[in-house]
Amino acid sequence: MAAGDLTHAAGHVASALVRAPTLPEVHETLARLAAASGGGLDLFPLQHHTFVGAVVARAHLLAAAGRPAEGLDLLVAAGAHAPGTDWAGVPWVTSPELAERIGPDQAARVLMQVCAAAPDPVPAADRAALAPYLTLARNAITVHPEHALLLGTASALARRVGEVPLAVRWAGRGVRAAPSKMGEVWLGYALRSAGRTREALAALRRAVDHDPDDLAVYADIAGTLADHGRLTEALAWIERALDRNPSFDCAVHTAHRLRFQRDGDVRHLVALADFVRDHPDDSHEHSDLAECCRGRPWLGQVTPPVVPVAGETPVLVATPSAAAPTAGGDPAVRPSPPSAEATRRLRQLAHPAWPHPPAAYDTAVALATLDLNDLLGLLAYPPETPQTALGRVLSGQDPSLWVRCVQVWTCLGLLHHRTDEPWLSSTRRRVLVELVNGVEEVAEAALFALVTAAWVDPAVRPDVARVVSGRLSTAAEAARQRPLPNAPSLAHLALATPDLDPDSVALARALAGIPARPRRRPLRALTGRLLGLIRPRLPGPPPPP
């Protein structure tokens, strides 16, 4: 600034705001810069890609220029970009005067934006960064104690940051001030978070009375009922929603999840995956499919490999070359070790869990440009366990599980090999089927890849179902002659297969030891630890406006 290089100075101030967004000295320097440049806004223009520090600096300068509502909008945007950072922890945001200056409608709009950018609930570590907005809500409600929209949005924020009693109180005041559909929804959510389920359902039913065409509320009621063991009532509510609109995304997702919860039939999840594929423009992202698949054998995680019985000689993985052609279609020779690039890519994505089969397929596209020899080389020469948190868990609990992961993801990579070839005559199908039938240690990984192909492409389902049915029959016959340790894993693979014939389903249930009325079994302790390392933060439904 002393040299007159204000643009350069502005860059340093923006960087300092990112490092210490509430440090008084930074704000003092920003004020000096503004005084030296006629307000400073021109030094921090908004462009297509603007540094977050510049956005925050502009927000503070807008507030100083008498435009605090615009400044709040930019602070909220910064919070969406970097959650958990205390962008708003400055005096002008928490001052009671701000609530008077911007008015209740503007305050409510800001709180809506904060809720839209925040998960529900907000992780404990990130809640302190939203405290200034909760203070803004308190200040605004003090000035406008009967403003229903302000009370409702303030309740939504309070609930997200764990202030549940306050959320209930504010939502209740909002409904009393001006009964409305959204007021009842906010009250229902707050009551549900408080564990007051009966009152929450009553509030949500009143919301339906206000607007019978808002089918998202039907889905909320159904989900709440199901969470408390009232599945029959939940299904009745979701069927009411589907009667009104059979393609409404929230109702469809909830319906398939509840039907799967009722009978455990994978066809409901396959139908949901088909709906997701055919409706890419849903109103928001849903987590129903991932929730149903999480922790379930092959639907959401690899099953541990079978340890050979003492005295038996295991089939070595280093023999897949006998079962697969080369990329050119000629008879294969023993594959050479994979390239360093193939190993690097595989180690980056291999993991024992995934959200659901279509997500696993999408992730494996990272292996799409590897040639067939590299993919077969990964099967024959699995990379060593990575020196990561995941690798340490696998090494300490079940080292062979890493090899299983390598096999699974390599076979998923095979699904992306020469996808321009028609399925029945394709190299990818031929290689996977021959691995299923010829290389015992890799067979289940290859079979899972075929099952995944059936999830993502309805046209291949009859073919895959025949392959799985044949493999299952062979295993069942062998199980009659001797113990077959991998029978349960194979059975779960069959039960994950789209359009499997009823006789094969019954056989798979018997081999898996599943009772007539399937029930969710507790996850293994190892599975819990693994999922804890990587469970994706799937977005939930959007916040109420």
For this entry, give a set of tags.
545 residues, mainly alpha, 27 helices, 62% helix, globular, disordered C terminus
In a nutshell, what does this entry contain?
The protein has 545 residues and is mainly alpha-helical. The protein has helices at 6-19, 24-36, 52-64, 68-81, 91-94, 96-117, 131-143, 148-160, 164-177, 181-193, 197-210, 215-227, 231-244, 249-263, 266-278, 288-293, 340-349, 357-363, 372-380, 389-397, 400-414, 427-438, 440-456, 461-481, 487-495, 502-512, 525-534.
What would you say this structure looks like, in words?
The chain is mainly alpha-helical and 545 residues long. The chain has a domain at 320-534. It is built from 27 helices and no strands. Helix 7 packs antiparallel against helix 8 (148-160), helix 9 packs antiparallel against helix 10 (181-193) and helix 24 crosses helix 26 (502-512). It is globular. The relative contact order is 0.06. Mean pLDDT is 89; it is low at 309-332 and 517-545.
Radius of gyration: 28 Å
Structural class: mainly alpha
Q: What is the tally of helical segments? A: 27
Give the termini distance in whole angstroms.
Answer: 44 Å
> Mean pLDDT, rounded to whole units?
89
Residues in helix, %: 55-70%
InterPro entries: TPR-like_helical_dom_sf, TPR_rpt
Biased composition (Low complexity): 321-333
Protein name: Tetratricopeptide repeat protein
Pfam families: TPR_19
